[in-house]
Amino acid sequence: MKLLNFTFLATYFCGVALYAQETSVFVVKPYLQDANPTEITVMWETSLGEESVVEFGTSPKLGKKAVCGAEDINFGPSRIHEVKLTGLKRFTTYYYRVKTDKLVSDIYQFKTPPFASDNESFNFLAMSDMQIDHQNPDKFNEIVNKGILPFLKSEYGNTTPDDLAMVLIPGDLVENGAKYEQWQNDFFKPAQKLFSEVPVYPVLGNHERNANYYFKYFSLPKNGTPAYAEHWWYKDYGNTRIIGLNSNEGYRDSREQFAWLKSLLEETAKNGEIDFVFAQLHHPHKSELWIPGEEESSGKVVKMLEEFTTKTGKPSLHFFGHTHGYSRGQSKDHKHLWINVASAGGAIDN
Ligand SMILES: [Fe+2]
């Protein structure tokens, strides 16, 4: 009798193991990348499964379908999915959901950017250093779900993609970028409701540790120096150009990065469609709270932006983090603004 029981239990556990192997779950729910007036990229991660399908359309009935491939992310069965939707209408609300085999997401929305000539005003959000504070591990979740999203609702009252064009993050998204679990648990999960409907554009902070996970999770504009793909890039929204830079050791003094920035600013000076330039880089040139965090190379970027603004009359600003706090100011002799936005979760500096 005992033996029979044992056999039954063994079979039962086998059944559970087999079932667990076959059922895929979302490791990271869908999030948006690299939006243009006619294109957007949708990404997600599943515990299993190669299929990468996005169903989308201008109503919740969806109706269109885009398919692409999946990639290994952690030398295991989990897969990161990346699908680019093309042929979209500018400044239009779309509905979408993702599908990997039997796993189907909820339906989310996004809104494509306008052309510069549409002269649409817009809101965007800049925040950084959400890297977990172990004394307050829920802070980033609170900021997104009890701060940003209810604020947008009460202030503007439309859908999130109608009220917010994009999210900028000048670095330190997680405490240790080389730790796989931190990306899903500490970064994507708390912000899922935001990132599923508004594209997010980060740059590398020191805590990312230049880890491969960063480059796998994000699909940033491929318009930087090709040998340094996604380390620096730019993204236009209407008449505004966002410039992402890498201020980390090994990159902050890179001749290639400064040469790229110089030629981009020269092009931006001549570009009649761009009226504003917003840069983001992790390290401060000057900090009110944490002097040791300052970097001379960030000062070189500030000088280039100040000269750009003085020459062209196009206002510029730079967002930065690293020193955990909020502060803002303006260059004394230039129309260039400085904004420290590192108050999204990391322990605030004294
Ligand atoms: Fe930092």
CATH architecture of the largest domain: 4-Layer Sandwich
Q: Strands across the major sheet, in which order?
A: 13-14-15-16-18-17
Looking at the structure, the CATH topology of the largest domain is Purple Acid Phosphatase, chain A, domain 2
Q: Main beta sheet: strand number and arrangement?
A: 6 strands, mixed
Distinct small-molecule ligands in the complex: fe (ii) ion
Helicity level, as a percent range?
Answer: 25-40%
Average of the residue pLDDT scores: 94
Class from helix and strand fractions: alpha/beta
Q: How many domains, as an integer?
A: 2
Report on the structure:
- The protein has helices at 2-22, 139-155, 160-163, 180-188, 192-195, 212-217, 255-270, 296-312; strands at residues 26-36, 39-46, 52-57, 64-68, 70-72, 79-85, 93-100, 103-104, 108-111, 124-126, 166-169, 200-202, 233-237, 240-244, 276-280, 316-320, 326-330, 336-341.
- By secondary structure, it is of the alpha/beta class.
- The chain folds into 2 domains: 26-111, Sandwich (Immunoglobulin-like), CATH 2.60.40.10; 116-341, Metallo-dependent phosphatases (Purple Acid Phosphatase, chain A, domain 2), CATH 3.60.21.10.
- The strands form 4 sheets. It has a 6-stranded mixed beta sheet. Strands 3, 4, 7, 8 and 9 form a 5-stranded antiparallel beta sheet that branches. Strands 1-2-6-5 form a 4-stranded antiparallel beta sheet.
- It is globular.
- Bound molecules: fe (ii) ion (FE2).
- Residues 172, 205-207, 282, 322 line the site of fe (ii) ion (FE2).
